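Team,

Forwarding the record for the chain on the shared tracking sheet. I've put the sequence and predicted structure together so nobody has to dig through attachments.
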Amino acid sequence: FHVLVFPPFEWTWLAWLAPLPVLGMLPAPSGAAAAAAVWLFGTLWALGVVAPWMTPALHALFGLSPFATAGLLLLVCQLGLPFALLGYVLQTGRPRTPLGRVLFAPAVWVSIEYLRAHVPFGTPWALLGLALAEAPTVAQIADVGGAYAITFTLVAVSAAAAELLAPGETR
């Protein structure tokens, strides 16, 4: 879903469900398993959302050969690392109550997006909340806390859906 909410598809209505695949991976057998699974998700996201526009940009701006461009695109995989941290924290800090999980997931997601946008390399591309930047009603949420407030709302909705789809203490 995450890839489909951004250009060229722009199916922005899917932003409400975009976090669901990540949240559906939990609980995982361990923090390491959650980190690995969500890292793979993040890497595929980076290749699907960032690589399509980064490839021509690298070639046009720097005149790189296709081989050098491909090498730099391997660095796009580093964009999956914040997702690994997301998976690890969601798994190891997982609250016991459904309401706790519904509130914990967006708080962690927004924190990781903020870190990804600012440290260490500052890659603020395709923050989830930006998918709905042009939706007038939802964009009003940004008055409270920018794109991160929209992200919080989107992830909270997906976290609630994840709880409804797989209820019970084993989740």
